[in-house]
Amino acid sequence: MTGVGYVFASDDPYIGIDLDECLFDGQLVPAARQIVNWCNSYTEISVSGNGLHIIVEGSLPEGISNKVDMSRAGFKALEIYGHGRYFTMTGNPYGPVKPIRRVDITGLPVPQSQAGTGKVPRLSNQSLAPLIEQIKTGNDSQLFIALHDHGDVSHYEGDQSRADMGYIHIVSK
Known about the structure:
Residues 112-127 have low confidence and may be disordered. This protein has 5 helices and 9 strands; from the N terminus they run ββββαβββββαααα. 27% of the residues lie in helices and 21% in strands. The chain has 2 domains: 5-115, Prim-pol fold (2-Layer Sandwich); 125-171, no CATH class.
């Protein structure tokens, strides 16, 4: 089944959760297990054999980071996509096959050491306004404006993942 997959689109009800490098010798790290158990939805082993893809039904509100470094929790990264991402489907389920379940993604458990709150943060545009204005006057203002205001990823050769990481780097300075 290599190459068969699903593209998450803004007009569909699905969210893809990608847990990178969370399986070691077939054993799931505890922090990743917590996420899998909370989702309680269709989960399969990714093409690499050491990660998982979880598909849930829901919506991805603005202000939610789509990539969180999980190295302190024992695995590489947690990525969340509501659109613009392709998941190659392996047909290799992790555990018993479960139907896709509807969830409120803002309740997704992220270990305290990663997000500070134990959940993916929900931030309003209003609470971000002062920070955004400060970033727009900083050293990376032109790049930030291109990414934030215009969605321009040309600086990253059109690679959305690199652009996301660049964005995170700029706002975390």
